[in-house]
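Provenance and format

Records in this collection were gathered into a single text stream. Each protein contributes a sequence line and a token line. The two records reproduced below are adjacent in the stream.
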Amino acid sequence: MWTASESLRQLLDSLSKEQRRNQELLVSLAFALRSFTNLARFLELVPLVAMRLVEAEGALLLVFHEDGRLWREQLQATQCERCAEVLRQLAALNDSELQSLSGDEAVTRFLDQRVARLLGQAQVFATSVACRGWQGGRLYVFSSRVGFSWSDVHRRHVQLVADLTAVALENDGLVQQMRRHERLDRQLSTGAEIQARLLPDHCPRIAGVELAARCRPAFQVGGDYYDFIPTRPQLSGRRREQGRWALVMGDVMGKGIPAGLLMTLLRGMLRAEVLSGHAPGRILHDLNAMAQEDLAHSHRFVTLFYSDYDPRTRLLRYANAAHNPPLIWRKQSGQVDRLDAAGLLIGLQGEADYDSMQLVLDPGDVLLYYTDGVTEAVGFSGERFEERRLADALQLISRAATGGAQEILEQLFLRLDRFVGADRTLEDDASMVVLKVDDAVSLPPLLQGPMAS
């Protein structure tokens, strides 16, 4: 016969074995949480561990997306016919039915009632998988065994499993967010590469003038574009320097790779159109007609200032498709003027006319092309840099400059950086091109004013 002490020893041994088993189960789940990179593999273990911890008949795990939708691909259960049927019924729930309920408590009551009805006479213990900021799921453990009861230890064990599941869901959310950021970084890198290839890697030599150009990229890739295009590319050497050159500044409305790709497309069209030798207004008219369909499909528009310069006569012809008008500092008067001409955005409508204008540049004049990333730059006080501030800076710098176009460009960017602040970034790309006429150049003046398209 068993003595009282032997019965007590056997009970203690049994309890000790149960504790060791439960510890091993929880350690295994924690190891899986630390080791698995596949969320589904971890979630498959959750119902199994929860069931074995309390020696129940089965367990179910319902998982939600952060927006409250049932995550059907991640519904898990222990292997039994009753669990499989319950999962089928729950997977058939309409998302709108759950999302129409007001709050997590209403969703919990609805699901608890549905699960209890599907499981029949079984005793069910349910607990929430509580993630930070949203309910990640609901864990159900059930048993129909006679005499089965839920102890406080059972409840704590199941809750611990639910908490580890919440950690797994949060970790997966962080991993997915990191991957999205990595994809975005790759897209930004690709966009930056596209944009960099659009921009000339150096300024050309043009007789009688000096050029300097720079694009200051913002965090996001924009659609800034400037270009120097020979109207007679077959020329070389001194004849090329003395030939007419197209000077272009543009901006695609929008950011990222689509903006860069669209500007690549327009760059090719524009370079082909420059060879026609037409007046600036006609070139923008033809470019708009050619690009209309592509821009309409992308729901984007382009601002573009087109000009061409003849070093032999110092004649600058220009047309504008709603781009920021360049600024010109006239050395003789010491004043800054705007170069503007009437014209719509490229891509806004199929038939658009663009005025052609012209003027002669005098020795020492400084011409500044720029994009709206310059004038729209925001300073410490929330004010924008604006055209007036840029014009004042151009006037002061041009008057005081002892060097050429590069010095003026550097000083303009220095003023912009001081305004924005050293520890702050631009919201949009800021591009500037400076053209300075040599002081020694002296040619007879030409008639200025409107010209035929």
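Adjacent record:
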Amino acid sequence: MRSERGAVTLLSIGHASVDFYQGAVPAVVPVLVAQRHYGYLAVSGIMLAATLLSSVVQPLFGVLTDRRAMPWLLPVSMSTAGLGLAASGLSDSYLVTWLAIALSGVGVAAYHPEAARLARVVSRGGHGAMSWFSLGGNIGFALAPLVVTPILAAGGLAATPLLLGSAALGVLLTLTVLRSLSRGDAADRAQGARSGRDDWPAFLRLSAVVVCRSIIYVGLSAFVALYAGEHGVSGAVALFVLFAGGAVGTVLGGRLAVRWGRIRTVRIAYAAVIPMLAGVVFVPGYGLYPFVAATGIALYVPFSLHITLGQDYLPNRVGTASGVTLGLAVSIGGVATPAVGALADATSLQVALGSLLALAALAWFLARGLREPVSAGCSSGGSSCTPGSGSDRVAPGSATRPG
């Protein structure tokens, strides 16, 4: 495709069409409870199939895509995600429903490592492009309940096949991008992207930062509506401004990285999380809203930068890096949320949300130890790399190739 921006736009919409199925599961659950009378344990099992299983499997697909580029996996995984959710409402069997949701989750997991690799290829490692790609997923997740709820309200669980439309759109747009990339061009860019040494210590530190961020964000999104209600303001509005702030932060992160550099942007973002989250915990009434929005922005500014940093820390394992930053590390937030809820039951929501401040401080401390990835040109004595510069990226097309 002549226009890199056009390719990234199509991939972003494709990302939205896949993450739509992640956001759709919470909207399907109330209908399962109403029509099939599922209890809390059964619902927990459904959510486990949709989230934790998907996140754990995701790095495995990353390892596979590191061994060989598999662009065909994108339309296949999109179709799998759609077919799984479409089948979830067609049987009264809990096992069949669980397996269908799990299949959808595996489709979502299979998509992300290869899609992140392809986004890196078509954008030549641009931070802004990756932020738009990430934003697509956020939008798809957020739109899912708005689309799924009225469809299932009108047709019940028998209407779940209608949700295949999102996958069909994503497949169509992604195939357009794949057809526009010649095999030689894709191979050339992929070889350039694999230049350099893998920096595992830096990648593991980055993963720890992502884990802290995940627990903060998932915990906040799970309980901020209830907390707002306790303070006499709308919980729905609190959730909306949190998600809206996240969308703004995702786009802003790419722009700030171009101006300030990725590492500086990440450090400033996590430093900002601490006072903004403190405002959420301690400012009462309507004053809660601006702090919720600011916290959402600060938590999402580094989101796409985590992906590009991980890819540059592991230039020979881009799929693995994408699978971990998008999958395994992120799943910890969902695993840790029950602990936050248990603390709230034992004390109060304010204490539980206040405990997240410790993780915010830890994320900031860990981020201070991150360093800009060194390109192949730098490692071989080249002068083209200036860590921390405004354009601090390793462009796959310009990296020195081995041999």
